[in-house]
Specification:
By secondary structure, the protein is mainly alpha-helical. Helices cover 58% and strands 3% of the residues.
Length: 118
């Protein structure tokens, strides 16, 4: 859920950055109108509010970045998986779609550890 909140704030920041280009055009036309000044102040306040969330997002990415990169290398085609399901205990399950092609079994490879019968 942290990801969804961070993404909505990130979208707001991108929107705010896009709208900050408007005052640059307004300078060519004359002094900004009251509406433009109000919008600029609103966007500046929005950026100030979102700054702590962005710092938290950068900390999150610093911690999870290597794990996410490793996961992206291991999964070749995300389209063969269902949407993630969060269980009551907090576990996240990502199931393969029933129509997905079979995963090829690795040959006896030196990189694979030997199986152990228990």
């Amino acid at each position: 859920m942290l990801y969804a909140g961070a993404m909505s704030q990130m979208n707001a920041i991108i929107f705010a950055a896009a709208l900050t280009a408007l005052p640059a055009q307004a300078e060519e036309q004359g002094p900004p109108s009251m509406m433009e000044r109000g919008l600029q102040q609103f966007l500046e306040g929005l950026l100030l509010e979102a700054e702590p969330a962005l710092e938290g997002l950068s900390d999150f990415m610093a911690q999870m970045g290597p794990a996410l990169t490793d996961l992206m290398r291991q999964v070749e085609d995300w389209s063969v998986y269902e949407a993630p399901e969060i269980l009551d205990n907090g576990d996240i399950i990502i199931r393969r779609k029933p129509a997905a092609p079979e995963i090829p079994k690795p040959e006896d490879d030196e990189t694979m550890p030997p199986s152990i019968d228990l």
